[in-house]
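Can't paste images in this forum, so I'm doing it all in text. The chain is below; anyone willing to post the predicted C-alpha coordinates underneath?
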Amino acid sequence: MRKPFIAGNWKMHKTVAEALELADGLRESLADVATMDIAVCPTATALHAVSEALAGSNIGVGAQNMYWEEQGAYTGEIAPPMVKELAQYIIIGHSERREYFGETDETVNAKIKAALAHGLTPIVCIGESLEQNEAGETVSFVRSQIHGAFAGLSASDAQKLVLAYEPIWAIGTGLTATPESANATIRTAIRDVLKALYDEETAEAIRVQYGGSVKPNNMAEFIVMPDIDGALVGGASLTVEAFSGIIKNAVAALNG
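Text version of the structure:
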Protein backbone atom coordinates (compact mmCIF):
# COMPACT_ATOMS: atom_id res chain seq x y z
CA MET A 1 0.00 0.00 0.00
CA ARG A 2 1.51 3.30 -1.10
CA LYS A 3 1.41 6.01 1.56
CA PRO A 4 -0.02 9.28 0.20
CA PHE A 5 2.45 12.15 -0.08
CA ILE A 6 1.68 15.83 -0.56
CA ALA A 7 4.55 18.29 -0.98
CA GLY A 8 4.57 22.05 -1.38
CA ASN A 9 6.96 23.68 -3.84
CA TRP A 10 7.37 27.28 -2.70
CA LYS A 11 9.39 28.14 -5.82
CA MET A 12 10.96 31.64 -5.68
CA HIS A 13 8.72 32.95 -2.91
CA LYS A 14 9.15 33.86 0.76
CA THR A 15 11.90 35.65 2.60
CA VAL A 16 13.32 33.81 5.59
CA ALA A 17 10.93 35.60 7.93
CA GLU A 18 7.95 34.83 5.69
CA ALA A 19 9.04 31.23 5.31
CA LEU A 20 9.28 30.80 9.06
CA GLU A 21 5.82 32.26 9.55
CA LEU A 22 4.39 29.81 7.02
CA ALA A 23 6.30 26.86 8.46
CA ASP A 24 5.13 27.63 11.99
CA GLY A 25 1.54 27.92 10.83
CA LEU A 26 1.66 24.63 8.95
CA ARG A 27 3.28 22.86 11.87
CA GLU A 28 0.39 23.89 14.09
CA SER A 29 -2.36 23.32 11.54
CA LEU A 30 -1.21 19.89 10.39
CA ALA A 31 0.05 18.45 13.67
CA ASP A 32 -2.67 15.80 13.79
CA VAL A 33 -2.14 14.42 10.27
CA ALA A 34 -0.57 10.96 10.52
CA THR A 35 -1.89 9.06 7.51
CA MET A 36 0.16 10.75 4.81
CA ASP A 37 3.63 12.15 4.27
CA ILE A 38 3.91 15.94 4.06
CA ALA A 39 6.83 18.09 2.93
CA VAL A 40 7.57 21.69 2.06
CA CYS A 41 10.30 22.83 -0.32
CA PRO A 42 11.44 26.41 0.44
CA THR A 43 14.04 28.46 -1.38
CA ALA A 44 17.69 27.71 -0.66
CA THR A 45 18.05 30.84 1.48
CA ALA A 46 15.24 29.70 3.81
CA LEU A 47 16.11 26.00 3.85
CA HIS A 48 18.14 26.07 7.07
CA ALA A 49 15.61 28.12 9.01
CA VAL A 50 12.63 26.07 7.86
CA SER A 51 14.46 22.83 8.57
CA GLU A 52 15.06 23.93 12.14
CA ALA A 53 11.51 25.20 12.55
CA LEU A 54 10.02 21.88 11.42
CA ALA A 55 12.46 19.58 13.22
CA GLY A 56 10.60 16.90 15.14
CA SER A 57 7.33 17.61 13.36
CA ASN A 58 5.36 15.51 10.88
CA ILE A 59 6.40 17.81 8.01
CA GLY A 60 9.50 16.97 6.02
CA VAL A 61 11.68 19.43 4.14
CA GLY A 62 12.90 19.36 0.57
CA ALA A 63 15.19 21.49 -1.59
CA GLN A 64 14.16 22.68 -5.04
CA ASN A 65 17.35 21.91 -6.92
CA MET A 66 20.91 20.67 -6.57
CA TYR A 67 23.96 19.81 -8.65
CA TRP A 68 25.23 16.25 -9.01
CA GLU A 69 28.86 16.83 -7.98
CA GLU A 70 29.83 16.66 -4.31
CA GLN A 71 31.94 19.82 -4.45
CA GLY A 72 33.90 21.96 -6.86
CA ALA A 73 34.05 25.16 -8.85
CA TYR A 74 30.33 25.37 -9.65
CA THR A 75 29.38 28.89 -8.65
CA GLY A 76 25.80 29.23 -7.47
CA GLU A 77 25.14 25.49 -7.23
CA ILE A 78 24.30 23.39 -4.17
CA ALA A 79 25.88 19.97 -3.65
CA PRO A 80 24.06 16.84 -2.44
CA PRO A 81 25.86 16.74 0.95
CA MET A 82 24.79 20.35 1.56
CA VAL A 83 21.16 19.46 0.86
CA LYS A 84 21.40 16.35 3.03
CA GLU A 85 22.31 18.46 6.06
CA LEU A 86 19.00 20.31 5.83
CA ALA A 87 16.47 18.23 3.91
CA GLN A 88 15.11 14.77 3.21
CA TYR A 89 13.69 15.43 -0.25
CA ILE A 90 14.95 17.04 -3.44
CA ILE A 91 12.85 18.20 -6.39
CA ILE A 92 14.52 17.19 -9.63
CA GLY A 93 13.64 18.11 -13.20
CA HIS A 94 10.78 20.52 -12.60
CA SER A 95 9.43 21.83 -15.90
CA GLU A 96 10.61 25.34 -15.01
CA ARG A 97 14.14 24.02 -14.53
CA ARG A 98 13.92 22.25 -17.86
CA GLU A 99 12.45 25.25 -19.69
CA TYR A 100 14.41 28.14 -18.18
CA PHE A 101 17.68 26.53 -17.10
CA GLY A 102 18.35 23.91 -19.74
CA GLU A 103 17.87 20.74 -17.71
CA THR A 104 17.68 17.59 -19.79
CA ASP A 105 16.78 13.96 -19.21
CA GLU A 106 20.52 13.31 -18.87
CA THR A 107 21.09 15.93 -16.16
CA VAL A 108 17.94 14.79 -14.38
CA ASN A 109 19.29 11.25 -14.35
CA ALA A 110 22.66 12.42 -12.99
CA LYS A 111 20.94 14.34 -10.20
CA ILE A 112 18.74 11.37 -9.31
CA LYS A 113 21.77 9.11 -8.94
CA ALA A 114 23.57 11.71 -6.81
CA ALA A 115 20.51 12.18 -4.60
CA LEU A 116 20.12 8.46 -4.01
CA ALA A 117 23.84 8.11 -3.26
CA HIS A 118 23.39 10.62 -0.44
CA GLY A 119 20.19 9.18 1.00
CA LEU A 120 17.88 11.85 -0.36
CA THR A 121 14.43 11.07 -1.75
CA PRO A 122 14.09 12.55 -5.24
CA ILE A 123 10.76 14.03 -6.32
CA VAL A 124 11.19 13.71 -10.08
CA CYS A 125 8.96 15.89 -12.25
CA ILE A 126 7.68 14.80 -15.64
CA GLY A 127 4.95 16.08 -17.93
CA GLU A 128 4.04 17.28 -21.37
CA SER A 129 3.43 20.71 -22.90
CA LEU A 130 0.09 21.91 -24.23
CA GLU A 131 1.32 21.43 -27.80
CA GLN A 132 2.34 17.86 -27.10
CA ASN A 133 -0.94 17.19 -25.35
CA GLU A 134 -3.02 18.57 -28.21
CA ALA A 135 -0.94 16.62 -30.73
CA GLY A 136 -1.65 13.36 -28.92
CA GLU A 137 1.99 12.96 -27.90
CA THR A 138 1.48 12.85 -24.13
CA VAL A 139 2.08 9.14 -23.62
CA SER A 140 5.11 8.89 -25.91
CA PHE A 141 6.74 12.01 -24.43
CA VAL A 142 6.19 11.04 -20.79
CA ARG A 143 7.42 7.53 -21.53
CA SER A 144 10.63 8.99 -22.96
CA GLN A 145 11.10 11.05 -19.79
CA ILE A 146 10.63 7.91 -17.68
CA HIS A 147 13.25 6.05 -19.68
CA GLY A 148 15.65 8.97 -19.28
CA ALA A 149 15.09 9.42 -15.57
CA PHE A 150 15.44 5.74 -14.66
CA ALA A 151 18.42 4.95 -16.92
CA GLY A 152 20.91 2.81 -15.05
CA LEU A 153 18.84 2.51 -11.87
CA SER A 154 18.25 -0.83 -10.19
CA ALA A 155 14.74 -1.85 -9.16
CA SER A 156 15.57 -1.24 -5.50
CA ASP A 157 16.81 2.28 -6.26
CA ALA A 158 13.85 2.97 -8.54
CA GLN A 159 11.45 2.25 -5.71
CA LYS A 160 13.04 5.04 -3.65
CA LEU A 161 11.90 7.70 -6.13
CA VAL A 162 8.73 9.76 -6.02
CA LEU A 163 7.38 10.87 -9.39
CA ALA A 164 5.35 14.03 -9.93
CA TYR A 165 3.28 14.00 -13.09
CA GLU A 166 2.75 17.66 -13.93
CA PRO A 167 1.21 18.50 -17.29
CA ILE A 168 3.07 21.72 -18.04
CA TRP A 169 -0.04 23.38 -19.43
CA ALA A 170 -1.73 23.02 -16.04
CA ILE A 171 1.01 24.61 -13.92
CA GLY A 172 -0.01 28.03 -12.65
CA THR A 173 -2.64 28.44 -15.35
CA GLY A 174 -5.76 27.51 -13.43
CA LEU A 175 -6.23 24.65 -15.89
CA THR A 176 -6.15 21.09 -14.63
CA ALA A 177 -6.23 17.69 -16.20
CA THR A 178 -9.33 15.78 -15.19
CA PRO A 179 -8.66 13.25 -12.44
CA GLU A 180 -9.60 10.47 -14.83
CA SER A 181 -7.24 11.63 -17.60
CA ALA A 182 -4.37 12.21 -15.17
CA ASN A 183 -4.87 8.76 -13.70
CA ALA A 184 -4.97 7.19 -17.16
CA THR A 185 -1.74 8.91 -18.17
CA ILE A 186 -0.03 7.79 -14.98
CA ARG A 187 -1.12 4.22 -15.65
CA THR A 188 -0.22 4.01 -19.33
CA ALA A 189 2.75 6.37 -19.56
CA ILE A 190 4.34 5.71 -16.18
CA ARG A 191 3.37 2.51 -14.38
CA ASP A 192 3.14 0.36 -17.51
CA VAL A 193 6.57 1.62 -18.58
CA LEU A 194 8.04 0.93 -15.14
CA LYS A 195 6.57 -2.56 -15.25
CA ALA A 196 8.33 -3.14 -18.58
CA LEU A 197 11.60 -1.67 -17.30
CA TYR A 198 11.54 -3.56 -14.00
CA ASP A 199 8.56 -5.60 -12.81
CA GLU A 200 5.03 -5.16 -11.54
CA GLU A 201 6.13 -4.92 -7.91
CA THR A 202 8.39 -1.97 -8.67
CA ALA A 203 5.80 -0.26 -10.88
CA GLU A 204 3.17 -0.51 -8.15
CA ALA A 205 5.53 0.54 -5.34
CA ILE A 206 6.55 3.94 -6.72
CA ARG A 207 4.45 6.85 -5.54
CA VAL A 208 3.18 9.22 -8.23
CA GLN A 209 1.93 12.68 -7.33
CA TYR A 210 -0.20 14.89 -9.53
CA GLY A 211 0.72 18.54 -10.00
CA GLY A 212 -0.90 21.38 -11.87
CA SER A 213 -3.21 23.97 -10.28
CA VAL A 214 -4.02 21.73 -7.33
CA LYS A 215 -6.39 23.50 -4.92
CA PRO A 216 -8.31 22.61 -1.75
CA ASN A 217 -11.51 22.28 -3.80
CA ASN A 218 -10.12 19.73 -6.29
CA MET A 219 -7.63 17.66 -4.28
CA ALA A 220 -10.23 15.17 -3.11
CA GLU A 221 -11.07 14.27 -6.70
CA PHE A 222 -7.46 13.45 -7.50
CA ILE A 223 -6.45 11.61 -4.33
CA VAL A 224 -9.15 8.95 -4.72
CA MET A 225 -7.84 7.93 -8.15
CA PRO A 226 -6.14 4.51 -7.87
CA ASP A 227 -2.83 5.58 -9.45
CA ILE A 228 -2.53 9.05 -7.88
CA ASP A 229 -0.75 9.06 -4.54
CA GLY A 230 -0.77 12.74 -3.65
CA ALA A 231 0.27 16.05 -5.11
CA LEU A 232 3.14 18.41 -5.73
CA VAL A 233 1.52 21.75 -5.00
CA GLY A 234 2.76 25.11 -6.26
CA GLY A 235 0.93 28.36 -5.61
CA ALA A 236 -1.57 26.85 -3.19
CA SER A 237 1.27 25.78 -0.89
CA LEU A 238 2.11 29.40 -0.08
CA THR A 239 -0.56 29.95 2.56
CA VAL A 240 -1.44 27.95 5.64
CA GLU A 241 -5.11 27.96 4.77
CA ALA A 242 -4.73 26.63 1.22
CA PHE A 243 -2.03 24.02 1.82
CA SER A 244 -3.65 22.74 5.01
CA GLY A 245 -6.97 22.65 3.19
CA ILE A 246 -5.51 20.50 0.43
CA ILE A 247 -4.07 18.02 2.91
CA LYS A 248 -7.11 17.87 5.16
CA ASN A 249 -9.46 17.44 2.22
CA ALA A 250 -7.26 14.64 0.90
CA VAL A 251 -7.30 12.89 4.28
CA ALA A 252 -11.09 13.24 4.48
CA ALA A 253 -11.56 11.86 0.98
CA LEU A 254 -9.39 8.84 1.69
CA ASN A 255 -11.18 8.20 4.97
CA GLY A 256 -14.58 8.62 3.36
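The chain has a mean pLDDT of 95. The longest strand covers residues 121-126.
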